[in-house]
Amino acid sequence: MFAFKALLGVFTLLPSVLLVAAQASLSAIPTSTLHQITNFGTNPNNVGMFVYKPAKLQAKPPLIVASHFCTGTAQEYFQGSKFSQLAEVHGYLLLFPSSPHPDKCWDVSSTATLTHDGGSDSLSIVSAVRFALANWGVDPNRVFAVGTSSGAMMTSVLAGAYPDIFKAGVVDSGVAFGCFAEPNLPLDTFDETCASGHVILTGQQWAQKVFNAFPGFNGVRPKIQTWHGTADTTVFPQNFFEQIKQWTTVFGLPSTPISNVSEPFLPRGYSNATFGPSFQAILAQGVGHTVPLFEQQYLEFFGIA
């Protein structure tokens, strides 16, 4: 069932991680090392939380939440990505959450996680972000989320349920917000119906799932950049097109892109469809599960690089 396990060998586990209580003072957190923090606020499912602070930090730093794939861990996503190396260049903070569930997927299915301040994994992650905002001088206008596979699905959940917290999200090989909704099943259930591309809704139906996550919210929603491979047989590419329907409707954008081009910074066969300032969708021809990380491009989308 969990084809995500093929990803496990791509990343290597760090030998050790320092465990510390959440520090009210950012200066108390050592630099350039991954640190687990505790006691950062409401944490319904005991999500593990890790922080990375570069040696040179901006005075009012951006914060990026980087969520791992199914069967993965915070340590593996940290080790297998360039987010920490680029943090040393650009001076942003990183939070790496770690799933507490048996298959190490994220809860992107329960009513609690899909609801603003409803509970479960999304609230655990947001609690750490709120702690960082209250205690570490993080710029509230530069809080971002990124994730791969199950972590991409969590990024969609964070963007949809907590638009008051996040300003942008990058979704690597994920699904539309609410596509995995299964309120009566285990929290990290892998929804084969959605993953195989068989949940087909109208744009308005998809958008309503986002609106229902935080009724009454009328602020600016986080912009979204989604990436997907045409050869993905774990999370089928139909999910890419369902995301397009969802977010263009949420943002009130046209359903056809204003441009669809091959960018010079992307490999051959990648096309970047821009629907407006709030939404981009990048389709990778012949690429399976998952699209490789393009961390520098994510930072440019966030406005950090």
Can you tag this structure with a few keywords?
disordered N terminus; 305 residues; 19% strand; eleven-stranded mixed sheet; alpha/beta; globular
Question: How much of the residues is beta strand, in percent?
Answer: 15-25%
Residue ranges: pLDDT <50 for 5 or more in a row? 1-20
Oligomer: single chain
Largest sheet: 11 strands, mixed
Order of helices and strands: EEEEHHEHEHEHHEHEEEH
Distance between the termini: 38 Å
How confident is the prediction overall: mean pLDDT? Answer: 93
Q: Specify the structural class.
A: alpha/beta
Radius of gyration: 18 Å
Helix content: 25-40%
Short characterization:
This protein has about 300 residues and is α/β, with parallel strands linked by helices. Helix content is about 25%, strand content about 20%.
SSE blueprint:
Elements: E1 18-21, E2 34-38, E3 48-52, E4 63-67, H1 74-79, H2 83-90, E5 93-98, H3 120-135, E6 143-148, H4 150-161, E7 168-172, H5 192-195, H6 203-213, E8 223-229, H7 238-251, E9 259-261, E10 270-276, E11 279-284, H8 295-302
Parallel strand pairs: 1-2, 4-5, 4-6, 6-7, 7-8, 8-11
Antiparallel strand pairs: 2-3, 3-5, 9-10, 10-11
Helix pairs in contact: 6-7
Structure description:
With 305 residues, the protein is an alpha/beta fold. It is 26% helix and 19% strand. It has helices spanning 74-79, 83-90, 120-135, 150-161, 192-195, 203-213, 238-251, 295-302; strands at residues 18-21, 34-38, 48-52, 63-67, 93-98, 143-148, 168-172, 223-229, 259-261, 270-276, 279-284. It has an 11-stranded mixed sheet with strand order 1-2-3-5-4-6-7-8-11-10-9, with helices on both faces. Strand 6, helix 4 (150-161) and strand 7 form a beta-alpha-beta unit. Helix 6 (203-213) crosses helix 7. The protein starts with 17 loop residues before the first strand and ends with a helix.
